[in-house]
Amino acid sequence: MYAPVGAADLARTHAWPEELLPIVQLARAHDCAYILFDADADMTDQLPVFDD
pLDDT tens for residues 20-33? Predict the structure, then answer.
């Protein structure tokens, strides 16, 4: 997924799920323009974890 600059404005304008914005902001804070969602990847303590 592309991690756009100005994600907070886009999240409000386009009604993103509330869990998505912190992921995009973390990616941008680490100079990443894209996010790969991988269920088998290592977890980080910088984002919440949800039991599903």
Answer: 999 999 999 999 99
Query: Residues with Cβ < 8 Å from 40, sequence gap 6 or more?
Result: none
* Number of Cβ within a 10 Å radius of residue 48: 8
* Angle CA 28–11–35, to nearest 5: 35
How is residue 48 annotated by DSSP?
-
Token pair of 46 as six digits? 């910088």
d(CA 41, CA 38): 5
Nearest to 14 by CA among 23, 4, 26: 4
**pTM of whole model > 0.90?**
no
Structure tokens at 2: 């592309």
